[in-house]
Design brief:
The structure holds two protein chains of two kinds. By secondary structure, chain A is an alpha/beta fold. Chain A is built from twelve helices and 14 strands. Chain B is elongated and about 65 Å long. In chain B, helix 5 crosses helix 6. Chain B contains eleven helices and no strands. The longest helix of chain B has 30 residues. The chains are: A alpha/beta, B mainly alpha.
Chain lengths: 334, 271
């Protein structure tokens, strides 16, 4: 066991599709047994990174190693040490759940009996036993994702890649997926996970890399990133004739030093970045009340990917502004 | 050994690359075959079309076509068999294009399986499907008056040639799919090259009545060779040079199109 040696390591990865630059010198490092969240909007290059690291795509420049193997020169060897679950379920609609898993097992070159045993084990673990003999085309979105994820675990790979594992899932399936992913890593698997959702990265990842336009623009733990964003967002909307200036003065007291308070007079709306913490909301309400400000709506919001982006890049993360590089992903989501 | 050894690895048996290329191909062929009865409309349509051709030529055009001493239905069926398996190449292309559009190919490519298996699995499955359709056509043929006079060797030879043509044309279909990618394009492009080969051949008429330039083409192209050889074998007539010419064409197609499509597959999938 090579202590401290990264399970995933990439340096200066570049890739373009025609004129579209998908990766612009991306560096990455994931310590063995940890989860890295690759956070970014659509078109940031997340999927391209995953495709390169899983040997599906060759980089134009740069190098990468996964499980100690070069992703280009040792691609054949590497494929038996990784598992990949893509953004859209890569399972066969006209096979049953069990047939899908057995097929994948056979393609990992497991003997027939072993492939069958492993399929049963995974169906059990992912709560798909009842649906095991049904064609996958009858599965719900959440079931497909679970089957897809279990297919990437057939060979118990030491390094696992999950490309937007919860995109398109309803909230309940999403949380179920999070629980499953959490369990995986307690078993020592190294995991690289891409996501568009800060809360997902926050909940699952040990470290987060924020990706934009093919580069890593920030890296750290989720609390480090949040500290850079400047904590939570306090939003207040006032009633007609509600004393905007008084409210602004109150919010100043709680606002983060460099954030300040932004006021939109027309909508009678104020927003301030605050440190958050227990009792903050109550204190703000008391103070506003004391200043005789008539509040219509008041809320504390946790920072989102948009906030992270706004802070790091000065612009919003627009999910619509995708490059050609991930067109295919968009199509699949729709 | 690095720490990156997986639990499953110990259970993997070791064989040569060639062994795995075949084994992986069969795993995927099985996958394609079990799907056939689950999407019955595919087989139904693949069968209805040649049945229509049999009825059309047997009862509509057949009376007006002179094929020398032979009864027209006996002449016709070899052409129908060859046309049926040749058109199967479109099915190969469409199936492959559909696979390529799904995320499933990404999974296959991230597995330690033979690169060629997606293609061999598809072409082997289509061979089995074509065998089935030829069997159905044989029954239809006999119902409308087809009376083959082949012995066991003749049947074996005819079937062998049909399957070889089916397999080699499937690889052409696969190559087209890898060039076109979109299912719709593959569907139409897949037939374009098959029409001249099928109709400018000895499938439905004798080539003697064609204009000279067309006859030259018709007499030398692969489908005529296979049709003439299969016809002779089924009717117990001398095969002449058609047998080895048919064989040479099919093997030639395989030698060119297998490596070509495997190369294209690597490139297409590596996008």
């Amino acid at each position: 066991m090579n202590r401290g040696r990264p399970a995933i390591w990439a340096e200066g990865l570049r890739k373009s599709y025609g004129k579209t630059l998908a990766l612009d010198g991306l560096d990455l490092r994931v310590v063995e047994g940890t989860i890295l969240g690759l956070l970014g909007p659509n078109g940031a290059g997340k999927t391209t990174v995953v495709r390169i690291l899983t040997t599906l795509l060759s980089p134009d420049a740069g190098r990468a190693e996964v499980a100690g193997l070069d992703v280009v020169r040792q691609a054949d060897e590497l494929r038996s040490r990784i598992g990949l679950t893509g953004q859209y379920a890569a399972v066969d609609e006209y096979l049953t759940g069990r047939e899908n898993l057995e097929m994948v097992g056979r393609l990992y070159h497991l003997p027939k009996r072993e492939a069958r045993r492993r399929a049963d084990e995974l169906l059990e673990r992912f709560d798909l036993v009842d649906a095991a003999s049904r064609l996958v085309k009858t599965y719900s979105g959440g079931m497909r994702r679970r089957l897809d994820l279990s297919a990437s675990l057939v060979f118990s790979p030491p390094v696992l890649f999950l490309d937007e594992p919860t995109t398109g899932l309803d909230p309940r399936s999403r949380i179920a997926m999070w629980d499953i992913i959490g369990e995986l890593v307690s078993g020592g698997t190294t995991l690289l996970l891409t996501t568009q959702y800060l809360d997902e990265a926050d909940r699952l990842a040990d470290r987060i890399c924020v990706v934009d336009a093919g580069r890593v623009i920030a890296e750290g733990t989720s609390s480090e990133l949040k500290a850079r964003v400047g904590g939570e967002r306090l939003e207040v909307t006032l009633e007609q004739g509600g004393g905007l200036e008084d409210a602004a003065r109150v919010l100043e007291r709680y606002a983060h030093a460099d954030g300040g308070v932004r006021v939109d007079a027309e909508r009678r709306y104020l927003v301030a970045t605050v440190a958050g913490g227990a009792g903050l909301l109550a204190a703000v309400v008391r103070d506003l009340d004391a200043a005789r400000v008539k509040v219509d709506e008041l809320g504390l919001h946790r920072p989102t990917l948009d906030d992270v982006f706004l802070t790091l890049t000065g612009r919003a993360a627009e999910p619509d502004a995708t490059g050609d590089g991930e067109l295919r992903d968009e199509k699949e989501i729709a | 050994m690095s720490s990156a050894t997986n639990a499953g690895a110990a259970k993997v048996r070791h064989h040569s690359k060639f062994y795995w290329a075949l084994a992986d191909g069969f795993v995927l062929a099985k996958r394609n075959l079990v799907q056939i009865p689950r999407i019955p409309e595919l087989v139904v349509f693949a069968t209805i079309q040649p049945v229509m051709f049999v009825l059309l030529f047997r009862y509509v055009f057949g009376g007006a076509i002179d094929v020398g001493g032979e009864s027209y239905v006996n002449y016709l069926m070899a052409g129908i068999f060859v046309q049926t398996v040749a058109f199967g190449a479109v099915g190969t292309g469409v199936g492959l294009a559909e696979d390529l559009q799904k995320g499933l190919v990404d999974r296959f490519r991230s597995l330690p399986m033979a690169r060629s298996a997606v293609l061999t699995g598809r072409t082997i499955a289509d061979l089995v499907r074509n065998l089935f359709v030829v069997f159905v056509m044989l029954i239809v043929g006999i119902l409308v008056g087809f009376r083959p006079e082949a012995g066991l060797a003749g049947w074996a030879g005819a079937l062998g040639l049909l399957l070889l043509l089916s397999f080699s044309f499937s690889w052409i279909g696969a190559t087209i799919a890898l060039l076109m990618r979109s299912t719709e394009a593959v569907q139409s492009a897949g037939f374009i090259w098959l029409f001249p080969l099928t109709f400018a051949s000895s499938a439905f008429v004798q080539t003697d009545n064609m204009p000279g330039w067309l006859q030259t083409f018709a007499d030398h192209q692969p489908m005529t060779q296979v049709i003439d050889a299969v016809r002779a074998l089924l009717l117990g007539q001398p095969v002449g040079s058609h047998g080895w010419r048919a064989l040479a064409w099919c093997l030639g197609i395989l030698v060119v199109f297998i490596p070509l499509s495997v190369t294209l597959y690597r490139r297409v999938a590596a996008r």
